[in-house]
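Here is one chain, start to finish.
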Amino acid sequence: MTPSLFFLISLSILISTVSAKPVYPIKREQNMSFKKFMNEYVHKQIPVIITDYKHVFKNASEHVLKICGEKQAKVAYTNGTGWASVNRELDSKRVNDFLEDCGDNCYGLFDWPLPSNCPEFMKYWTTPKYFAQDLFQRVNKKIRYRESWPSFFIGHDGKHGGLHIDVGNTAFWMYVMSGVKEWRVLSPGKIDPPDLFEQKLYAMNVYPGELIYIPNGCPHQVSNKGLTMAFAGNILLDMQGVREVVSPGKGSYYRQMQQEMLIPSFDSQVQYELEDDLSWDLYKGQGVAFETVVNFHIISMRENRLMEMFNRIDNLKVPENFVVMAKHFPAINGTEVWDYAPAIPYKNWKGECPFENKASAGCMYYTRDITKGELGCTLSHLGALANTQNDPAHINIIVEDDVHFDEDALFKLRNVWHELPDDWDMLYLARHKLEVDTPYSENLVKPGRSWGGWAIVYSEKGVSQILRKTHRIMDNLIAWDEILPAMQGNHFRQDITDLYMDKVDQPLNAFALKENVARVYYNEDFIHDTDK
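Its structure:
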């Protein structure tokens, strides 16, 4: 079957599919976090239109024709034998000349690589945060394929390419400078039956100033309405499409990249907390802008244990592009402040045993007074939380000085980071589980009531939410291990939950690793400050 005939048949099938099944609009988003983009669109392979990125492309839009207009580029003809049924192996002309319609079956300027054809233009380029961690940029810089994008398109009214899937199941984005692009996108699958009849069909016009993202593996076709100009690129933000088999006669440049990306040492991790658009130099550097700063805030009052804790942190295995710091927060000695601290132990803490086994440790725990050590520990954790507020670290971990981490704890933390939702407040790295957890994701749970403030990661939102209730804590002081479950809304004693939670309060959005990556070793010679 000739490519032209195949194109016509595919197009007729697509048209019949439109009439036979519902056509879904492509959702428009603005003020979208990178994490939401990854979780809701990249991983779920759903297209999206981003409407608030005109300012990022402003410089590039104003300079592309001024800088590149006199360059020579090959004319693209539709219904050809090339990619997306477009042939670019014929005549050439100046980029500015593509603004005039080039006749029947002539698309115009199609997917023209800017970095290789007009490198002087790239100083005006800014890469949106959504594509800043493109895995293509992490391969050997000598591989030419990584220099193919961004590319430039000039198309004319009614002209379109063929229905196609991008090579290697790569994802695709396009920013429309002028004119209107009419998109038809199918959910992931092949461009022939039976997949074509079962796939979901999306359709939407993309207008000037809008940016569309097409997930990997999605067949798509674009038509022009009026004279259109657009920037575009192929990207990889996860490894979903990398293992696709590429035939020897197709995508040779891509195969070079694919071979390098499949080696065990290739870093395919994407950092969900990064929210920066990148200049061209930083984007191509890929090491400069992607450092994740982790700060351990060590609560300690004993020099020997503090030094041991520093040594244990120094011995952790550290992922590439992680910068690890540790700082000391002097613990508050409960014995020294008991008589004058502006804190009041909860007067109704001590009561009747809430358990059937009256001889149990739990029964003894809830029928005794608050200890001086518990007062000091709670005040120390509050102080350490306040200390993180002006910290530039991406990840703040509050640890007690008796914690021992798994040597690969930071790798495990990095690998689950993308599973946290945007509104998370705290993440237990270690804890003593008291009640049943609720499954959440592959590596995370919503914790049931738990003890253990030994090693917890707090978000900026979580820190603020806890510190807003400092006055309640100071007026009704109990152990930190009891305060956190109460603020999460899962303490078994309602009176304790009511101390820190009004009816309008939202519980702390807490998570925990399924498996602890740190632990505390108890022995008779080891003194815990909270036991004083």
